[in-house]
Design brief:
Distance between the termini: 46 Å
Number of domains: 1
Strand content: 15-25%
Number of strands: 7
Strand order of the largest sheet: 3-2-1-4-5-7-6
Radius of gyration: 16 Å
CATH architecture: 3-Layer(aba) Sandwich
Shape: globular
Order of helices and strands: HHEHEHEEHEHEE
C-alpha cells in the first residue's frame, strides 16, 4: 500500500508510526470489504485515503485527549476509527444500526486491537436502551443527518462544556443561520469553525465545532 503521508498533508497533527500502521490496516480491510459490499461510495484506496481518512482527522486538534465520545451513524468507521486510533485514551461509543456495517466495525476493532470502544446498534432518534454513560464529552457525526436534526437528536446527550463536531458543505453560513434559534434552545454555541478543501475536490467544506454552555 502506498504511503499515507500525502493523506495527512495539511492536517494539524503528528502521527506516530504505530498510528499510521493502524490506519493502514483499517484502510486495507475497508478496501477488501468494499469488494463484496458497499460500505462506502468509494472503491479507490487513494480516494478513501484522501477523502474519508483526511476528512475524519480534521477535528483532531479540537478534541481533548480523554473523555467519552459518541459517534452517531458510524457507518464504515468515519470519523470514529481514525479519531480513536489517534486519541486512544478517549472512550468511544459507535452508534450504527446496520448489521453488516456493525460487523465490519467489530472486525476493525479486533484487527487493530482497539480498547475502550463499543458499538451501539441503535438509531439516535429511536433509542430504546439506556446508555452506559450519563453524558458524553464529545459527539461526532459525518454525513449522518442535516445539522438541525443532528442538534435536536444529540444535544441532550452532551455534557455541559462538551463539544459537538459536524462536517458541513459549502452552505455553511446559511445552515448556521437557519439553526441559530435551535442552537440557543439547546444551549449550544459556535466554539470554532474551519473551512477546508479535500485533496482532489473543488467544493469547500466546513468543520463546525459547537459547545454546550456550562
Amino acid at each position: 500500500m502506498k504511503s499515507l503521508e500525502l493523506c495527512f498533508k495539511g492536517i494539524e497533527t503528528n502521527l506516530s508510526p504505530g498510528q499510521k500502521d493502524l490506519l493502514s490496516i483499517f484502510i486495507k480491510e475497508l478496501t477488501a470489504w468494499n469488494k463484496h459490499m458497499n460500505l462506502t461510495g468509494l472503491s479507490s484506496t487513494r480516494r478513501i485515503m484522501d477523502e474519508l481518512v483526511a476528512d475524519s482527522l480534521m477535528p483532531l486538534p479540537y478534541l481533548p485527549n480523554t473523555g467519552i465520545c459518541l459517534d452517531v451513524g458510524s457507518g464504515a468507521g468515519f470519523p470514529a476509527i481514525p479519531l480513536k486510533i489517534c486519541k486512544p485514551a478517549i472512550k468511544f461509543f459507535l452508534m450504527e444500526p446496520n448489521l453488516k456495517k456493525g460487523s465490519f466495525l467489530k472486525q476493525i476493532i479486533r484487527l487493530c486491537g482497539l480498547k475502550q470502544i463499543e458499538i451501539i446498534r441503535e438509531r439516535v432518534e429511536m433509542l430504546s436502551q439506556p446508555f452506559p454513560f450519563e453524558r458524553c464529552h464529545m459527539i461526532t457525526s459525518r454525513a449522518m443527518a442535516p445539522l438541525p436534526k443532528l442538534v435536536k437528536w444529540c444535544a441532550p446527550y452532551l455534557a455541559p462544556g462538551g463539544l459537538m463536531v459536524a462536517f458541513l458543505g459549502n452552505r455553511f453560513e446559511d445552515i448556521l443561520a437557519e439553526c441559530e434559534p435551535l442552537l440557543k434552545e439547546k444551549g449550544l454555541f459556535v466554539h470554532d469553525s474551519k473551512p477546508y478543501i479535500l485533496k482532489g475536490k473543488e467544493l469547500k467544506r466546513n468543520l463546525l465545532i459547537l459547545k454546550k454552555r456550562e
